[in-house]
Write a structure and sequence with these properties.
Elements: E1 3-10, E2 18-26, E3 31-34, E4 49-55, E5 60-66, E6 69-70, E7 73-74, E8 78-82, E9 87-91, E10 104-108, E11 111-119, E12 122-127
Antiparallel strand pairs: 1-2, 2-3, 4-5, 5-8, 6-7, 8-9, 10-11, 11-12
Length: 128
């Protein structure tokens, strides 16, 4: 509790200077710390979303990451970060939202929702 996680992004004014680092701000101490990133992890990206939730499947707190702008274009990847293990897992699913950026995500009653954003064809007005 009382933590904020920041993942990736891009250097201001630099379209191709994408980041894949991860920082945690601890409200109780007012300090930032960088998390070590394992070898298997999402590609560097910006304009993606991360949402925190408890997962029965992973038996603990997780961060879900979806979408974003990578060096090869808009992403439709879903990743799960197991907080207690410090590992990323790619989630392979046959049905998933279209590649997008600038979307919103939420977890409600154990279900991950991806809403709207911008895709390859323009503004998206959908819910997955």
């Amino acid at each position: 509790g009382g933590e904020v996680v920041v993942h990736g992004g891009r250097l201001l004014g630099e379209r191709t200077a994408l980041l894949d680092d991860m920082f945690v701000y601890e409200a109780a101490t007012g300090l930032w710390r960088q998390l070590p990133q394992p070898a298997v992890r999402p590609a560097a990206r910006s304009r993606h979303q991360i949402v925190s939730a408890y997962s029965d499947e992973y038996a603990g707190q997780v961060l879900y990451l979806f979408g974003g702008d990578t060096l090869i274009g808009f992403s439709d990847e879903l990743w799960v970060f197991e907080v207690s293990q410090g590992v990323w897992r790619s989630v392979q699913d046959r049905t998933h939202p279209y590649p997008r950026v600038g979307h919103t995500m939420s977890v409600l009653n154990g279900v991950l929702y991806v809403l709207c954003g911008a895709g390859l064809t323009g503004i998206l007005n959908d819910v997955w």
